[in-house]
Amino acid sequence: MAVGSRRARPWVPLGCSAGVRGSRAAPSPSCPPPPRLPPPGRREEAEAEFIRAARIGPRCPSFLAGCGGQSSAAPEPPAMEATASLLDAAAVGDLVLLDPLTEESLLRALQERFQRGDIYTYIGNVVISVNPYRSLPIYTPEKVQEYHGCNFFAVKPHIYAIADDAYRSLRDRDQDQCILITGESGAGKTEASKLVMSYVAAVCGKGEEVTKVKEQLLQSNPVLEAFGNAKTIRNDNSSRFGKYMDVEFDFKGEPLGGVISNYLLEKSRVIRHVQGERNFHIFYQLLAGGSAELLQRLRLRQDCRHYGYLNRESSSLPGVDDAANFRAVQDAMGVIGFSTDEVMALLEVTAVVLKLGNVQLSSHFQASGMEACSIPEPRELEEICQLIRLDPSALEQALCSRTVKARDEMVLTSLSVSQGYYGRDALAKNIYSRLFDWLVNRINTSIQVKPGKQRKVMGVLDIYGFEIFQDNGFEQFVINYCNEKLQQIFILLTLKEEQEEYVREGIQWTPVEFFDNSIICNLIENGTCGILAMLDEECLRPGVVNEDTFLGKLNQACAAHRHYESKETQNAKRVTDASLPPRCFRIHHYAGKVTYNVTGFIEKNNDLLFRDLSQAMWASRHPLLRSLFPEGDPQKVSLKLPPTAGSQFKASVATLMRNLYSKNPNYIRCIKPNETKAPMLFTRELVLVQIRYLGLLENVRVRRAGYAFRQLYGSFLERYKMLGKKTWPRWAGSERAGAEALLAELPIPAEELAYGHTKLFIRSPRTLFDLERRRQERVAELATLIQKMFRGWRCRTQFQLMRKSQILIAAWFRGHAQKHRYRQMRRSALLLQAYARGWKSRRLLRELKSQRRRHRAASTISAYWRGYQVRKTYRKYFRSGASARLANFIYRRLVQKFFVGLRNNLPPLAVTDRTWPPAPYRFLAGTNQELKDIFHRWKCKKYREQLTPQRRALLQAKLCASELFKDKKTLYPKSLPQPFQGEYLGLTQNPKYQKLHAVAKDKLVMAEAVRKVNRASGKTVPRLLLLTTEHLVLAEPKGAQPKTVLSLGDIRSVSVTRFSDGFLALHLKESSTGGTKGDFLLVSDHLIELVTRLHQTLMDTTAQALPLHIADQFSTRFQKGDMAVTVVESAKGSREVPVCKKKGSHKMEVLVH
Ligand SMILES: Nc1ncnc2c1ncn2[C@@H]1O[C@H](COP(=O)(O)OP(=O)(O)O)[C@@H](O)[C@H]1O
Ligand SMILES: [Mg+2]
Question: How far is the CA of 459 from the centre of ligand 1 (A)?
Fold first, then answer.
């Protein structure tokens, strides 16, 4: 099938990485052919791949004798000789390259490839897959990467290549695709479909949502396989239903979801299977993998042998873990989105089917003498009814009897045991097949795409293959019909389109007859006289109907048909054929003659279920089971018979065909290499049969008979223009003229070529191969030329660059050397110059020095000489002592000058200013000091003279205070800036002190407020103190009444502390009259002034100094005895000091600071 496309198929050059098969590749003039030469070892491989790339179109079917040999008959150009060995190679990846092409060589090629582990082979772009029956390391993620985005023809044949090609055509070219996988049972179709799906899933987009969709799509497989697959003699995991899955993608190529269609489940397997086979996997999986709790709930036993529908012999399969598979199925259902209730309901219905097989019937005779059946052991029936929540008697009645309509009256008739079993089995089959349909629909609900989204579709068809058994029944008949239809697609799409293209292109073309299997399809599906139509007719016909009447009818209608045979038609032709037994008919299918036994045709086609049973099912309160039997609703009783199995199948095949026609098909043809499922065993006879019926040889021939290659002129010219002198490097004319001019230059026979309107056609692969070889040689030459030119250019530019650099470096170096030399010369010249100048200067200096010496010598000599002369002349005029007088004179002049200068420059007159100019000559230093002292004393005298008597007295008082206290009492420095006021009380102004006036009349010296320390307690009391020139008076401040009047003569001495307090002790003479109580302790704020004035006054009046003690300890004399006063220094604080504290009767502490 050329695959795939009913559109123009320009051939894509090998070098173009578009990676699409020719039929889909758009003309790509822009695609540059990269001149990559394969390494010598890979050359052959590359050439073979190239040839594989070719689109080989069929021209005539295989059976047109001579057609296939057309190409080999053509005279071969000498250049092609060398390639023959390559084309003869037995195990080529593309069978189109086989030469000679015979059944034997084809078989040998497949066998050799198979034994090398290459299970995939191409015919053009049809993939042939031989089942290896062992796992090969060719499905790894690395392989997926290798084939992802690959060039279909540049990689080894692989199923991934076709999957990738289909996926990319879908994504990039917006073409819906379908992948048709055909082959007989066990040939690897299902595996192939899974490989395609998993590849597409691996390469199509990522992301959470996409992954979920992918998972759902992939997980539908284990679920469907569990319910739809079974072990058969030929295949341990044989699909017992046809499956077509549409995967839908968005414009980015990301999967959106899908739709699964299922075809004709082999439901008879539910009730019966051949020895050595098994029922559907799910039953075994459920029993092996279901937990005890689950089995209990489903009322099942774990032992398979308990169930009539399952194997009596060993049920487990080697290498298959049913329990693990059951868990996988449960997980998969979870992924798809089944709720736990749904899973439970599904398993319950499955259990019901299994248990139905155990419902035993027995016969008894009714009163009427009629045989009737009943259920002797109702346990199983009851359990079923518990599961489906139905009244057991209702089910028993439905199983054992039947309602018949007789003259508008419903009559219940009992069934015979065999009728009862027939009904029971029909029910089991129906429940199971309807459950399977429900399952598919349920999966579809999960994976369906929301409407409205624009989508592209990739369909994968994995349908049961052509089956020829010893005994072929209704199932084989419909299966083979379906395969016949698929073959029809294959033939029509391949041959029709191929020929149409030649006509379209205006190529001279004799229309080729090809075997159209529509005659067989018509024999089966024709609406009036087709086998299916007649079967339906027989089923619907009233009266006696059985298989014999059906066969008779067939023999009548198809007697003359070329593809129909039966005993009767043979007899008519007087042919004896022992292989065709009676009650059989034979059809000459495309894949071989198959003899069908008509037994069971009517029953299977009718597929009838007693209405009582469907009504009983509908009556159950199990929602899922009930929904499977909508016709059981008594409200909707329809007298119309349901469509027969045959017509249903025909309709669904027709839909499938329409679906496939609308898509671009990709073929995977699976071959089974042996009957024993043995790894790597290649049974030639078995494969040969398949090669024959798959029509592989014809397939290759068809591809080779027509023009093997075609390509748009533009693309052809682009690829091969380097082969012609006129066309290389550019062709200015039309593309077709260019191609013609190019080919005219080459030694290719004219019959090898055909010029279409838009495309060039090349008949044999050899010619193209030769072209390609020439091209490769030419490309190699051109590549060498380019290399040569490039290397020359590169060397030249490099040389020029090096030369330029060398010149630059040399220039810089020379410049640098010159500069260096120059600097050295300059340094030397300067050195020489310096030496010369130095030498000259030194010579000059020497000269000048000697000159000066001579001058000086001459002057000295002349001075001495003149002196001598003068002395000699004036000696008589000089007297003795003249020098002393001269010296005196000079001294006087100097002193005079000193005094005059001093007068003009006297220092300021301020007393405190002690500045004085220094002596100008050392002999005047003593004088100068003297003068300085005199000046100072004079300044002081002047100052004193200008003082007022009060000020003088004040200063005298201050002086006296200084003599008394300086450096002895801490209070003294504080008193310095305070002027001695003497009168602090304001006696004259304050009339309060009137009385004191009188006391002070005799010359007041000082008046102030003091505090007197109580001799007994140490506390102080305020007193006014008046000091006159004769007395010291203490008065009370309130009354201003003198309290104590002491004559100054009574004062013996005064004691004060060292600190800054105002404490004083006034020691009185013992003879004193004023102080009878003893010495006074006073605290004065003007202590310094008070003591000073006291001292001065005493001096003035008595000419005696006041004895003043400044000490830390002294004793006082009181009336009550002596008291030791201790001065204690306390920390400074806010407390007023001094504080006197009495300590016992003879001790007092004065706190001061
Ligand atoms: N590509 C393969 N690699 C390894 N084993 C394979 C391959 N294809 C098929 N098989 C084996 O062949 C068996 C039958 O394949 P299957 O696809 O179920 O056949 P079919 O669907 O054609 O009846 C599989 O169970 C598997 O063991
Ligand atoms: Mg299968």
Answer: 20
User: Which residue has the CA at smallest separation from atom 8 of ligand 1?
Assistant: 188
CA dihedral for 487, 489, 495, 496, sign (positive or negative): positive
Please say whether the beta carbons of 1078 and 1015 come within 8 A: yes
Taking only the tens place, the pLDDT of each residue in 157-173 is 999 999 998 998 898 77
CB of 163 closer than 8 Å to CB of 195: yes
Give, as one character, the DSSP assignment of residue 456. Answer: E
Q: Is the dihedral of CA 1002, 1003, 1009, 1013 positive or negative?
A: negative
Are 599 and 551 a contacting pair, CB within 8 Å?
Answer: no
Q: Which residues surround ligand 2, an ion (CB under 5 A)?
A: 189-190, 239
Query: From the CB of 232, is ligand 1 less than 6 Å away?
Result: no
| Crossing angle of helices 713-720 and 765-874, rounded to 10° | 60
Give the residues of the chain that fall short of pLDDT 70. Answer: 1-91, 151-154, 312-314, 494-496, 510-515, 639, 702, 704-705, 708, 765, 878-880, 1002, 1074-1075, 1132-1135
User: What gap in Å lies between CA 775 and CA 46, rounded to an integer?
Assistant: 13
Q: State residue 1069's pLDDT score.
A: 86
3-state secondary structure of 872: helix
The reply to whether 169 belongs to the active site is no
The pLDDT of residue 604 is 87
β-bridge pairing 1139-1142 and 759-762 = unpaired
Asked about 1072 being catalytic, the answer comes back as: no
Distances (CA, A) of 1036 to 147, 513, 1073: 131, 165, 19
* pLDDT given at position 738: 94
HSE (side-chain half, CA atoms, 13 Å) at 1019: 2
pTM for the whole thing? 0.60
User: Which residues make beta-bridge pairs with 263?
Assistant: 242
pLDDT computed for residue 142 by the predictor: 94
What 3-state class would DSSP assign to 641?
Answer: coil
Query: Would you call 901 a catalytic residue per the annotation?
Result: no
Annotated active-site residue 828? The verdict is no
CB atoms within 10 A of CB 25: 24
Which among 232, 235, 483 is the best mutation to test ligand 1's pocket, defined by most ligand atoms within 8 Å of the CB?
235
Q: Is 185 a catalytic residue?
A: yes
**Residue 229 near ligand 1, beta carbon < 6 Å:** no
Q: State the Cα torsion 616-610-419-399 to the nearest 10°.
A: 0
Residue 918 is classified by DSSP as: P
Coil, strand or helix: which one is 899?
Answer: helix
Q: Dihedral angle at the C-alpha atoms of 383, 387, 390, 396, nearest 10 degrees?
A: -40
From the CA of 233, which ligand is nearest? 1
Catalytic residue selected from 57, 93, 124, 186:
186
The angle subtended at Cα 320 by Cα 315 and Cα 323, nearest 5°, is 80
CA of 193 to the centre of ligand 2 (A): 9
d(CA 661, CA 653): 12
Q: Report whether residue 184 contacts ligand 1, using a CB cutoff of 6 Å.
A: no
pLDDT confidence of residue 382: 94
636 CA to middle of ligand 1, Å?
Answer: 46
Q: Is 85 among the catalytic positions?
A: no
Query: Distance between CA 263 and CA 479 in Å, rounded?
Result: 10
663-694 per-residue burial string, b: 16 or more CB within 10 A, e: under 16: bbbbbbbbbbbbeebeeeebeeebbebbbebb
**1031-1043: b or e for each residue (b if 16 or more CB lie within 10 Å)?**
bbbbbeeeebebe
Burial of 766: CB neighbours in 10 Å, binned 0-12, 13-18, 19+: buried
Q: How far, in Å, from the CA of 328 to the mean position of ligand 2? A: 19
Cα–Cα distance, 207 to 996 (Å, whole number): 120
